[in-house]
Amino acid sequence: MIIAIDGPSGAGKSSVTKLVALELGFSCLDTGAMYRAITWKALEDGVDVNDAEALGELARSCTIDFEHEAGDPSPKRVLIDGIDVTGEIRTQRIDQNVSPVSAVPAVREALVAQQQRIGRAGNYIVEGRDIGTVVFPDAEVKVFLTASAEERARRRVAQNAERGVGSVDYEAVLADIIRRDEYDSSRDVSPLKPADDAVLLDSSPLTIEQVVQAIVDLAREAR
Ligand code: DC
Q1: Ligand 1 pocket, 130 CB below 6 A?
Q2: With a 6 A CB cut-off, is 32 part of the ligand 1 pocket?
Q3: Which of 2, 5, 9, 92 has most ligand 1 atoms within 8 Å of its beta carbon, as the pocket-test mutant?
Q4: Lower Cβ count inside 10 Å, N or C end of the chain?
Q5: CATH number of the domain residue 116 falls in
Q6: All residues at 6 or more sequence positions from 155 whose CB lies less than 8 Å from its CB, including other chains
């Protein structure tokens, strides 16, 4: 079974995905981490983030791996061509450059193919922007998880503080979230929008437990 969780940055997709996976015994796939890893590699190799052709070539030639620990559905480490970029992909440098990289059709094509291969291997809960629309249009459960920009900024700052990486400046994080929302929703390729058959969940007034329970219920109904 595939559970597709789409929605804007900071809606709580990662935390929710992990808890649903634990509850159902599924594995998690964080597709945003893959776009982030390609962005890291481009910056590292001095590839211009506006050079679509070079980025496509890079995405086709890189191998992204997720290393898991037994009993934990979320990967412990994210590797690109064997290099551990788990912490590096959460920095502001990547936040600021990932949108143009993820808007390149050839980059998406390469990563979508990898995502489909990984997801088809078992029961997966997959989070991203285009999972229900493009990557797994036949997913048994599709959820579009949202929250207000202010609520998402508050959560992202708390998450960054906890992880010890990324900005903890609320205004800067909010501005970045609004900028990325606009960019991700208005791009030509796979813009951020709910699939026609997705269940819309606004997490602003809900606790994380309530969101998790709603998705677990949808998955049990779909079985
Ligand atoms: O979920 P995130 O913030 O880690 O995603 C990082 C960026 O990657 C974000 O700007 C949108 C993009 N992305 C995408 O275009 N398609 C996906 N399936 C996942 C993420």
Answers
A1: yes
A2: yes
A3: 9
A4: C
A5: 3.40.50.300
A6: 10, 12, 147
Indicate if ligand 1 lies below 6 Å from the C-beta of 102: yes
CA 88 to CA 86: how far, in whole Å?
6
What is the domain range of residue 126? 2-222
pLDDT in tens, 93-103: 998 899 899 99
By C-alpha distance, which of 19, 42, 2 is closest to 138?
2
**CA 84 from centroid of its chain's CA atoms:** 18
pLDDT in tens, 55-72: 999 999 999 999 999 889
CA-CA distance, 141 to 146, in Å (whole number)?
16
Instruction: Specify the number of domains making up the chain.
Output: 1
User: Span 200-215, mean pLDDT?
Assistant: 95
Separation of alpha carbons 18 and 5, rounded Å: 11
- pTM to 2 decimal places: 0.92
pLDDT at 48: 96
Q: Which two three-digit tokens encode residue 88?
A: 């590096």
